Amino acid sequence: MTTTDAPQTQIVADPDVPLVRITLEFDAPREKVFRAHTDPDLVVQWQGPRDMQARIEHHDCRTGGSYRYVHVQDGVEYGFHGCFHEVRPAELIVQTFTFEGMPDGVALEKLVLAELPGGRTRLVATSLVDSFADRDAFLASGMESGVREGYRRLDALLAG
Amino acid sequence: MTTTDAPQTQIVADPDVPLVRITLEFDAPREKVFRAHTDPDLVVQWQGPRDMQARIEHHDCRTGGSYRYVHVQDGVEYGFHGCFHEVRPAELIVQTFTFEGMPDGVALEKLVLAELPGGRTRLVATSLVDSFADRDAFLASGMESGVREGYRRLDALLAG
Cβ neighbours of residue B82 under 8 Å, at least 6 residues apart? Predict the structure, then answer.
């Protein structure tokens, strides 16, 4: 499964392991892309689908920290939480992720930022779970469109 | 790959996903087995191979906490660290794990404790990584014998 749209978001289901790999490029230096992931005041401006209100409960983005945020749609709250395994400035964020509607599901997420010529940045985000069925259900759940919308908003925020 | 020894430690490499599953039973109630995983003063008494000295730097075993410990052999230190994604008393610990000798490797670990008749406990510990090559290298590295020795020491600690 490979699809592409502006800003060139590629979402690939790995054929060998239950992992999703998202690749895209931003017209901004990686320090700025990194900050948009670590500063809760910026994160809240782009994360998730456009039609939901995000509320960040806490977002302690450092090695050994943790986070929880809530998306609100028509008065219904959807909670998400995890811990930050490792944070390397401008380079790498490794974290866990649970959607609280499926409290036994856990993903291991890795965000890697690479410097490109011309002050651009390539972002590669992987999400690993322990079964292909769960990975494919996750892809089928509409997660793709939420991810694409989020990254479109991030792209606009970085351009602003 | 399936092998068994006292205390009936079964270590299985999953055929479908890059995961190792360790199953064993203890002649102790699960609250006690859980405490041996969460209380650093107990953890330090059983974790890891017999011929290494363990030193716990911190072990904040709660949802959103983190840990780091060091194994010392012949003056050489081997560091390990991670964060606790979720801790449910007597039931579940989900955490990340990195051996600092391979700082880019991360495993997502899940420990599940189930009550058995007669005050016994079944422990199922899974460790998920993002490639079969890394999983198999990990199994080939002598990790198995360290795990078996650790669980033998835990068994003795619980009996004491």
Answer: A85, B66, B67, B95, B96, B97, B98, B109
Number of C-beta neighbours around residue B2 at 10 A: 9
- Compute the distance between CA of residue A116 and CA of residue B153 in angstroms, rounded to an integer: 51
Disruptive mutation site among A14, A61, A86 for chain B (greatest number of B CBs within 10 Å): A86
pLDDT digits (tens, 9 = 90+) for B73-131: 899 999 999 999 999 999 999 999 999 999 999 999 999 999 999 999 999 999 999 99
Interface residue ranges in chain A relative to chain B, Cβ cutoff 8 Å: 16-19, 63-66, 81-86, 94, 96, 98, 106, 108, 110, 126, 128, 130-132
Written as one letter, the residue type at A111 is L
**Residue owning tokens 């991670």:** B82
Q: What's the complex ipTM? A: 0.92
Measured between its terminal Cα atoms, the distance across chain A in Å is 32
From B19, B85, B110, residue closest to A83, measured CB to CB? B85
B41: its two tokens: 């003063």
